[in-house]
Structures are given as C-alpha cells and as structure tokens.
Amino acid sequence: MRYSKLFAPTLKEPPKDAVLKSHQFLVQAGYIQQIGSGVYSFLPLAQRVLKKILNVIDEVMQAHGAQSCLFNFVTPATLWQESGRFGKYGKELLAFKDRKDNDFVLGPTHEEVAVEIAKAHIKSYKQLPLHLYQIHTKFRDEIRPRFGLMRAREFIMKDGYSFHIDSADLDREFLNMQAAYNEIFECLGLKVRAVEADSGAIGGSKSREFVLLAPCGEDTLVACASCAYVANVEVAKRAKRAEPDNVPQAAFAKFPTPNTPNIEAVSAYLKVEPFFILKAVVKKVLLENNESQLAVFFVRGDDSLEETKALNACKSQVPALSLEDIEGAELKKYGLFAGYIGPYGLKHLVPNALVFFDTDLSEADSLVCGANEEGAHFVGVDLSSFSGLDYKDIATAKAGQACAECGGVLEHHKSIEVGHIFKLGDKYSKSLGAQFLDQEGRACCFEMGCYGIGVSRLLAAILEQNADERGCVWSETTAPFKVVLVVANTKDNALNALGEELYTALLDANVEVLLDDRAERFGAKMADFELIGCSYALIVGNKAKEGVFELVKRQGLSKLEMTKQEVLDFFKGA
Ligand code: ATP
Ligand code: MG
C-alpha cells in the first residue's frame, strides 16, 4: 500500500480528554474516531489490526473445536424475559420498542440466543458437545464509558457458548478453553494471567478471568508473593488473621464513648486496636421487584467491605440486584446512628435487615461494638454468645495479609480484564427449557459454558502493555503493517527508484509493506512511523546507492544496516 493513498488521519496532539496512552495514540495516530459517548468507528489502520486479532482467534478457536457463527445483535426482549434477566441485568441493558410496540434489547451478551439455537436443533446426546462462537458488536450502556476502547458502550467481543451432556464434559471444555485462551493471548504477544473471578451478571458456578497487569487497569488482583494463588479482589480469599498481642481485657459492659463516630476515634478513646472493633457498613439492597431492603455488614475495624462479596452475600438470601450507599440522615429514620451501629437490638430496630458478619469474626471475642445509641459502645463483646449469625467472606483481602493457600504475603496489582470464561451449568438451559434426551432416553437440561474475549479492548490492552512515549508499539502479530518503506529524500529520483524497486520486491515476497511516498520531510515521516507503530521502518537513505538500507525496529528503536538481499531474507523469515 502507498501511504499517499492510506486514510490515516493523524493529529498533531492527542485528544484532551484521553488519559491512557492507548486512548491517546489510537486517536492521534488515526486508528479510531469517537462518534458518541463510548461509541467509536474503526478506521483502516484499526481495521487491519482487528483483522489480525480475529484471524488468531478464529484459528485457535477452530483448532480447539469451536465453530464460527454470527448471531443477531437485536434480540427480542421475550427471550430475556424467559431467562429472567430482563429485569435483572440492570441499566447496562439497552432496550427499545419497534413500531409494533414489541420490546427488544441490544445484545450485551448472547446466552439466550445461543440457547435458543441449541434448543431448536439439539435433541439427542449424540449431537453433543457443541461449541458455537461469534465475533460481533456488543452494546452495554456502561455508566462510565471511558479510556477509549477500554470501556466503551459499543464494542467488539468474541463470545462462545458450549453445550454438554454433563458437568464432567463441561469441565473438560473449560480446560480446553483455558488452553485456547492462553494460546490466543500468547500468539497476540500479550502477557496474560488466568485468575479466579466473580461471575457477575452472567452467573454460573465458576469463572476465570484472563488479565494483564497494568497500572491503568480498572481491576485489582490479589496475588501471593510465595505461591501461585491469584484472584480478582472481588473473590480473593485470605488466611484467618492473626490476633494482635494486646487483646483488650474488659468484661461485657456498655461504655459511654462521646464523639467517637468512626473507628479511629473509638480506637483512640478506648485505646483498643481497630482489629477488635466491629465496623458496621450499611447499604441499601436494590431488589429485582424494584423494592429495597437494608443490609448491615460487620467487618473488623481495620478491614474494608468488598462490595462484590457483599452483594453475593445478599444474593444468597434475597434476589438482590445491586447495593447503594445510604446517608447518615436516612439511617436515623431506622433509629441507627452512624458510627454507633452494633448487633445488639439491631433486628429489633430494623426487623427485615439482612445482617452479615465477615468470616474472620467467626467466634471472635474481646470486641467493641456500637450500642445502637449515639455516644455509646459495648465492650467485652463475644460473638459466640449470639446464635444464628450469618458469617460470609465479605472483607477485602488486603496487601500484606496472609495467603489462604500457603500463608505467604498477599500483594495487590492493577489489571485489565481481556477475557472471561464461565461454567454456567444449567442456569440458562433450565430457565429457557432447553433439553435433550440422554442415553437412557431421559430429558436433561444442557450443561453450558460461555467464553468471552474483549476484542476491541485488546487493541487498547496491547498498547498499554507495549506503547512508549513516542506512540503505538504493536506486537509483531498485530501491527497494521510489517514495514514502512521510507524514502529519505523524495526529491532524489535515484532514491525514489530504489524505493520503488524494494517496494515491489517486498510485495512479491508477500510482506505487508507501506511505501511512504508522501512529499513530507524525512523527520515527519519517521515521527509518523513512531506514532503509528508498524513493526519496522526500512530507510532508503544516501547509503542505498551503495546497496545499504537501514532497518529500524519500532520496539526499542534499534537500528541495523542491511543489503537488499538481507532485507528480503529477514522479512521472509519474520
Ligand atoms: P468488566 O468487569 O470490565 O466490565 P465484564 O466482566 O462485564 O467486564 P464480560 O461480561 O466477561 O465482561 O465480557 C467479556 C469481555 O468483554 C471482558 O473480559 C472484557 O474484555 C470485554 N468487555 C466487557 N465490557 C467491555 C466494555 N464496556 N468495553 C470494552 N470491552 C468490554
Ligand atoms: Mg462489565
């Protein structure tokens, strides 16, 4: 391709609102254009990168037994009503009506559609297993679309759905996909880790996320410094905490604690370590029927509530959708005082409140807790004196705490999620009534798995991992062109002729080459090479007349002199 014909509208400056380097460079280098909030168009350079990613995904998925499809994007809401997700998925689901007043959704994920297809055609165990996948547009009305392709509203996902006769075969496919994903990411040049994760709105029993470490990541990983344990903070476990030496010695009593509306103040006033103080976090739980309920979560004073764990605890009791903060003034309506909330009399004050205690508090004693009146706490509290407390893992596993697997030290890392695989079990096949006949002729629901990759997010992720301060750096398998041929001085006809000759030779050798034939200064051309980030620049400079060309590698900008033959050999091998 000739650069003069390429539509790559580069900008002098990155967009003002772009904070991530991937977002800055993708816009500045003319890869993408924002059309609306969280909505982007992919221009020719991005389309080239996308196609390479799609090829890798197609090749690996098909080698692992999955078949490529293209599902509908607009889905009748009736399917989502049947699965029970229409009211549950929340505001990320964009729904609308057609001219006949029928409800539709823009697919944020396609479990319902995949089940509908399997349900229509798979009648016998003999037709199983089946794995269908697609690479297509998704729409999620994200509350905070940002960071360019990283968190868009309209984005491209690879999503696959597998159907099995039993959970053992699903387990096999889950491992098969884990291997496939590792292969895909390795082939794309990404250093990715598979970690334990929460299943979120998709649901199911077990899930694994594929993440890459990056300071700009929106997720937090908890990893053990000593063993292989690594999990999203939303599900990360920790060992039971060691009790500090100075255990408070007090008989059970109510104690006046004026002006101590937070843990620090109580701790200073009573000279008790926060470890021994019960912290109450109160949230409003929004339910599927649009009603709400109060939930009180107790954790140690120096622990924090982990919101996903807290929501999952609520889901174990009620059809909870989400948690919302609650103001001190609203708490007073329930007779609760921020900073002085405790378990004594709580059920009396708020009879239908959900109350959970972090597992680290199980059987804990020598505690301090709020007395449910302003300016008073109980001391010498022994939780084993209560019966029927609901203990759940609801606290954040913090950096520096001990690993549940080996006792090693836990660390926190920021990460970007690029893929997520789930064991769904019969969640969707049951609700949508999708059955097959097993070997004994019994009707059974499919066991299902689902497997996603954030394809458009990958463009951003690759750049977050590789880009430098000058611009995009792609992995070798994803760069839009392998090499840019830069004629240093286009006014020199001899150099132009040498450039054309090399261009033809590279095209003949099937090398993806971009000939920079623009009447620009050499410096400007090299700056564009650095901004766009093709893997190599091949410079046709003065030495070309003696048969020597300079090859610049975009990654690291190292330089090498080569003859024409060496250039051809190099790219044939590359
Ligand atoms: P996140 O926690 O980042 O919102 P998710 O858990 O909602 O992700 P999944 O439902 O598992 O995502 O979707 C599969 C993949 O699609 C994710 O691993 C991610 O790479 C990608 N993805 C999800 N939401 C977005 C988005 N808003 N923009 C771009 N890619 C996304
Ligand atoms: Mg999401």
UniProtKB/TrEMBL annotation:
Gene3D superfamilies per UniProt: Anticodon-binding domain (3.40.50.800), Bira Bifunctional Protein, Domain 2 (3.30.930.10)
Keyword tags: Aminoacyl-tRNA synthetase, ATP-binding, Cytoplasm, Ligase, Nucleotide-binding, Protein biosynthesis
Annotated EC: 6.1.1.15
Residue intervals of the Aminoacyl-transfer RNA synthetases class-II family profile domain: 33-480
PROSITE patterns named among the record's database cross-references: AA_TRNA_LIGASE_II (PS50862)
InterPro entries to which the protein is assigned, alphabetical: aa-tRNA-synt_IIb, aa-tRNA-synth_II, aa-tRNA-synth_II/BPL/LPL, Anticodon-bd, Anticodon-bd_dom_sf, Pro-tRNA-ligase_IIa, Pro-tRNA-synth_IIa_bac-type, Pro-tRNA-Synthase_IIa_type1
Subcellular location per the Swiss-Prot or TrEMBL entry: Cytoplasm
UniProt-listed CDD domains: ProRS-INS, ProRS_anticodon_short, ProRS_core_prok
Reactions listed under catalytic activity: tRNA(Pro) + L-proline + ATP = L-prolyl-tRNA(Pro) + AMP + diphosphate
Record flagged with keyword Aminoacyl-tRNA synthetase: yes
Subunit note: Homodimer.
Function: Catalyzes the attachment of proline to tRNA(Pro) in a two-step reaction: proline is first activated by ATP to form Pro-AMP and then transferred to the acceptor end of tRNA(Pro). As ProRS can inadvertently accommodate and process non-cognate amino acids such as alanine and cysteine, to avoid such errors it has two additional distinct editing activities against alanine. One activity is designated as 'pretransfer' editing and involves the tRNA(Pro)-independent hydrolysis of activated Ala-AMP.
UniProt note: domains: Consists of three domains: the N-terminal catalytic domain, the editing domain and the C-terminal anticodon-binding domain.
Protein family: Belongs to the class-II aminoacyl-tRNA synthetase family. ProS type 1 subfamily.
Identification of the protein by name: Proline--tRNA ligase
Organism ancestry: Bacteria, Pseudomonadati, Campylobacterota, Epsilonproteobacteria, Campylobacterales
